[in-house]
Amino acid sequence: MNRPLLHSMHRCMAVWALVLLAGLAHAAPPDAAYAEAVQALPEASFREKAALVAALVTQGHPNARPLLAAMLDNRLYADDRGVFIADADTTADAEPVWRDALTLNPADVSLGSRDRIRTNNSLRAALKVGLAQFDLVDPDAKVRIAAVRELSGDLDDDVLALLRAQQATDDAAAVRREIDIALAVYQLKDDDPALRLAAIEVLDGEQRNLVYNRVKPLTDPAHEPDAAVRAAASRVVAGIDGWREIYGALETLFFGLSLGSVLVLAAIGLAISFGVMGVINMAHGELIMLGAYTTYVMQLLLPNHIGLALVLAVPAAFLVSGLVGVAIERGIIRFLYGRPLETLLATFGLSLILQQVVRSIFSPLNRSVTSPDWMQGLWQINDLFSVTYNRLAIILFMLVVFALLLLVMNRTSLGLKVRAVSQNRAMAKAMGVRTARVDALTFGLGSGIAGIAGVALSQLTNVGPNLGQAYIVDSFMVVVFGGVGNLWGTLISGLSLGVLNKLLEPAAGAVMAKILVLIGLILFIQRRPKGLFPQKGRAAEGH
Amino acid sequence: MTPRSLLMRGGRGGAIFLAVMALLAVVVPVLNLGLAPDAALHLPDYWVTLLGKYLSYALLAIAIDLIWGYCGILSLGHTAFFALGGYAMGMYLMRQIGTRGMYGNAELPDFMVFLNWEALPWYWWGFDQFWFAMLMVLLAPGVLAFAFGWLAFRSRVGGVYLSIITQALTYALMLAFFRNEMGFGGNNGLTDFKDILGYSLQSQHTRVGLFLATVVALTLGYLACRYITGSRFGRIIEAIRDAESRTRFIGYRVEYYKLALFTFSAMLAGIAGALYVPQVGIINPGEFSPINSIEAVVWVAVGGRGTLYGAALGAGIVNYAKTWFTTAFPEIWLYALGALFVAVTLALPRGVVGLLARRKGGTA
Fold first, then answer.
1. Are residues A74 and A207 both part of a single domain?
2. Bridge partners of A387?
3. Under an 8 A CB cutoff, do A349 and B342 touch?
4. Which of A49, A410, B78, B89 counts the highest number of beta carbons within 10 A?
5. Is the pLDDT of residue A543 over 70?
6. CA A304/CA A299 separation, integer angstroms
């Protein structure tokens, strides 16, 4: 027998002795047993570690929970003086703050000498269960519920006993219900059909994936001999399927609304310049692009405050695009009023120039804009339905922009003048409205809102010189579909086109859905050339 | 109307245009085929193809001028018809490749073999016949323009709205042709052509032949447009441009006149596309892009709309400038093109032709 093997056997026996000791932990002072188990961790094999983890859980020492959590996250280290917990991943730039695993007091760990305490898959599973057991007795009911959920997937006899005990004593009804579900899921595997049936009755009405996956096999005669159980299982599965369909529809609606919000944002500036002023601005897409690049530049200026940069980018983009818009109006468009086709050509030429300017300054490559933390991630409403924060943010942002625009148009003197000029230019002029100034400001307003749309778009796609082009056809479609000169029409048309697109997508594919929507629009315009909500009365004759 | 009066109807500009066409038809073959490659005045093959490309663009420009300059219909989707004609020709050329493709399949073009298609889709049937393909060059754009125009003009969609939905039309077609499932080669389009009517596309003689065909088509197209604009039909078209409601109230069915003119113009654009493809050697969905259509409208604006020969001149000027800029100063081309758009619309409402006429008027 060679020496290393002998050594390892010795060690092994020592660890097992320790585990046995831990089993009798009530007699020994808990601190000592805890310390021994912790100090055995660095040298233990994976199997021994599993045993040690089980022992730590059984002891229930209050310091064990942060220790186990750290071990699960690979934040547990050891050197020759002891075992230490890092507060963050050591691969990060900053040196983590260290704590002693035994006392949880701050510790000074020198660089280089430490070794990470490694885990494997089965150990990580055991750690998760162990942590859940700790949380099961947490004073906070929410933590207890999460712990039961964590455990409910795979129960063994120990955990089962634990849950039963907790259920008998827990004072929160929600926790007791959660344990009922966990026990019922376990009971689905019982040999007695009556118990299986009872379990299904308990689970009836639950929508979570675990219930669906476990009850679904019981609808199959190959797995389930009892007809009554099969019938009950089918009922539960059908119920969940129904919910899935509803949530699926909700999700499509949500995706459609978020796409629609993008369309509305892109089109709403055009609804002002085209809808109210009758100016065809083919450079509208490039004004959106300028807004997106403004966001990019703001992030370059404030690299450590991504969120702040994004918030500041909104007024900045409004100013940049708005000023460019005023320059376009004063420099080109005012010479072309009453000649819409020429305006179209001149502004298209301008859009080419703007694209090339951006290419020359920022390179033709796409730039990516980072999203702040609060726009990333998911809001998991339940097992079947979740929404992403960035889509939600776009919808809310669109509503805010729309509301502000309505406010400007209906409640300010600028809005009053804009409406007066668009309805009857000569009369407005006769009443003392400086129409040239109003034209410039109106166009600037529409352009500025295009810039704001660019800020929103920068969060969804990469920022590049062709960003605007992708939206120009869509934007015109939204405005024309909604009815020229009608902001509410633009809102409804943008949202409904977005939803329609997403409804068609599963059946037809993304590109085909877009083609179908375009063809549908072309046909719709033939039927109702003035859009969904045409202007009526004298105002309609003004253009 | 006598043929002579038709030739002279375009005034001085028209006469110069026809003279230039005749000159090109003689000079280009002589300089290219008649002189040895090392002769000082030898015209390289490259230039023959390039001139042929410009002339097919000129035909497209004339088609646009016919509806925009004479009837006030600004189509921002005319390259859709151009590209459809091109695809019809491309499909014929694809079928002519036969077993010389990479996969050597006599029946299926390479890209279909690549996509594991079993058989030729029904809409490719008949394209191995030249006459059928030529029929389709006219019918595909013609039928689309007729259907589209029928819907649009009957419901009195006009002005800017029409421009925007024509743009949507070509955009939708572009997206559709990008799809591999459509069976038109997807992203890559149709290319690697070998020969046309049995003549190799690489041969100098075929290139000159195609060039001459383009000169003839452009001249005939010009004369046909000239005939239309000079006829009674043409007077009504101009009346519609200037006062649509009034023309309608007098009793003319405005929509039918517009529809006929629009369909004819689309077929003309289809012919231009069919001549373009064998000379350039490729057709892909990029030809449908709305930008191309707008660029074509700018050729007409630069040359001077409502004159027909001005449109052809504009196509020549802008495309030559594009060739020159994109080789000499590629990064400046878009600035130049954009500035051209703005300058022409602001300063030259009648285009180059208008400028020349004004100068002549001033000095005389």
1. no
2. A379
3. yes
4. B78
5. no
6. 8
